[in-house]
Amino acid sequence: MDKESRDKPLVNGTKLMFYDSLTLAITSVLCCAALGLGLYGNDDLHNGFSQLLTEGHQVEQLVSQIRNQTTQIEKTLTKNEESQLTTIRDAFDNYATNQTAVAQLLKWIDNAISNNSDAMHAASDIRLPLERIHLTAKIRLAEKIETWRWPITMTVLSLLLVLCVVLLVGVARHSRCALIAFSVCGLLAVIASYLMASVYLASSVALGDLCVASDKFLEEEASPELPREIVRYYTSCERARANPFTQRLREAKASIVALREVVRKMQKPANELFPGKGLEPIFISLSNQINDADKLFDTLMTLVDCHALHAHYLRGARALCNVGLLGLSLMLASSVLAGILLTILVWVDSHTWIYIRKRKDYHQVNETDTSYLPAPAASQAIAARTLQRSQGSYPPDTPPPSYTSAMLHISPHASAPPHEAQLLIDGCDKRSTEARGAHLSHLRGHTLGRLPSHHHESFSGPNNGKYATLSKQCKTLESSDFY
Predict the structure, then answer these.
(1) How much is the pLDDT for 13?
(2) Residue 222 DSSP label
(3) What is the DSSP string of 30-66?
(4) What pLDDT is stored for residue 438 in this prediction?
């Protein structure tokens, strides 16, 4: 197999790894963008849901004010009936000279008690339907759910985002460990993405149905004791639809006006007929309480109007159905896109890390690599300095001894014959190429510049024959003869 055939699989693997790495990088960036879209949608959903809960608190406060107002009216009118009117009625039972006037006072006091009771019952009729409206418990439950939902969603999306960033770093640095770790964690990320997508899909459908017919949903979820016309009045707030509390409020207002008029009529004759009973302070206190009840009814008439409560209802519905539903839709799209992109990333990543080899702690050197050997000039300079230090008999301007000079110092026990040394002394080996090759063949395996020794004897030449240089005069030798 030639070199081109051997290198072809390596080239194909390199190209495939390049394309896979490029695919991983682009898909990771798109996945980060999809997860960022989910973070944005989660923030929108949180803002819309928080606005809904805020408006829910406002509605609860408004309903509580109506209940408190009616309760205050009932307490005031009950005090009128039990304290002032009863005391005045008991005073009229005493003997008086003008019995006709007493009979008229008794008729007026009965009328006053009746009007006071009518006003009190009207306030009670307004309060009773609202007693079933308690949004505080549901609002607190929703707040607890949102308190856990928002940070958990942010944490999950942030972890998926960090996972994509780790993959990007692994692709950029060709990290085998990072890609293998993503292959394992990516499967969990894909499962989490599709689970979130299923939850968001169901939530989006439910919230969409709620936003389409929110008034009907409130009617069905309202308490059975709460009349449907009251719910429709506040959810629609149409001019053609009458206030369900208007009739009772008008009756209560008329009773208060009649009560005030009756008290004003009987105050003077009662004080004249019963001067020693101390009725004057009682009439003054009764008149003040009637005026307070009248003001409370005026405030109650403003509170039960649909405009204030309907405004809170609209703001809450818009926050949930516009901002919240948009955020939930973005989260659904983000989860679906992230699931698809993560699936692609896991699939491509499982084929990419195979082509990345593990890094070795050492550098493999080729046997024929001679880069560790010093350059010829540097070798000659080192040999020259070594010989000069060892012998000290060469002048500074004298060139270093050649290879032939080193051969002169070979002991008689050396393997080279004397005639071969003489030939080297002449400056060039004049033997034939075949003979020279046969002579050099036994030198292969030894280090260049170091003469072999059969008996491990010391050379008598310069520096014991070590690091000798070849003579420049011999120009017929070829480099191939030494390899």
Answers:
(1) 53
(2) S
(3) HHHHHHHHHHHHHHHHHHHHHHHHHHHHHHHHHHHHH
(4) 46
Residue 306 pLDDT greater than 70, yes or no? yes
Alpha-carbon span 356 to 12, nearest angstrom: 14
The gap from C-alpha 79 to its chain's centroid, in whole angstroms, comes to 60
Angle formed by the axes of helices 3-79 and 136-173, to 10°?
Answer: 170
Residue 334 has pLDDT above 60, yes or no: yes
Q: Where are the domains of the chain?
A: 14-359
Return the sign of the alpha-carbon dihedral for residues 313, 317, 319, 322: negative
Structure tokens at 280: 């004057």
Please check the confidence at residue 455 and state whether its pLDDT lies above 60.
no
At 121-144, the pLDDT tens digits run 998 888 888 887 888 888 999 999
- DSSP assignment string, 353-390: GGGSPPPPSS----TT--TTSPPHHHHHHHHHHHHHHH
Q: Could you tell me which residues come within 8 angstroms of residue 128 by beta carbon, excluding any fewer than 6 positions away? A: 225
Contact in structure between 289 and 73 (CB atoms under 8 Å): no
Task: Please indicate, yes or no, whether the overall pTM of this predicted structure exceeds 0.70.
Answer: no
DSSP 456: -
- Tokens 């406060």 locate to 61
